[in-house]
């Protein structure tokens, strides 16, 4: 006899997986559901990201790649934390990574 489940929300689906012991069977689906349920979804966050992109991606930087743009946006969005970082220590760590043609110091 086939058992039918009526699930209307992701929360109910996650609860059903937990109660039925199927968390180990549908590992990736369970992980995806948990991620979706825990993501902070709000209009303010989206607007903040687009505002940051408008500040970061100027006409001079239109040709930058997606990775670099993402890095710049993260620095701009988290600028309150970034201002406490000692730039000299970052330069020192970068300098130690490998030898360069031009010296940084």
């Amino acid at each position: 006899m086939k058992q039918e489940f009526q699930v209307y929300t992701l929360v109910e689906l996650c609860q059903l997986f937990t109660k039925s012991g199927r968390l180990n069977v549908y590992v990736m689906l369970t992980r995806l559901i948990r991620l979706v349920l825990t993501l902070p979804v709000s209009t303010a966050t989206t607007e903040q990201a687009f505002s940051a992109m408008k500040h970061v991606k100027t006409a001079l930087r239109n040709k930058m790649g997606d990775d670099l743009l993402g890095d710049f946006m993260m620095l701009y969005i988290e600028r309150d934390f970034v201002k406490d970082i000692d730039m000299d220590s970052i330069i020192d760590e970068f300098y130690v990574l490998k030898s360069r043609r031009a010296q940084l110091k």
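The two ends are 75 Å apart (CA to CA). The chain has a mean pLDDT of 76.
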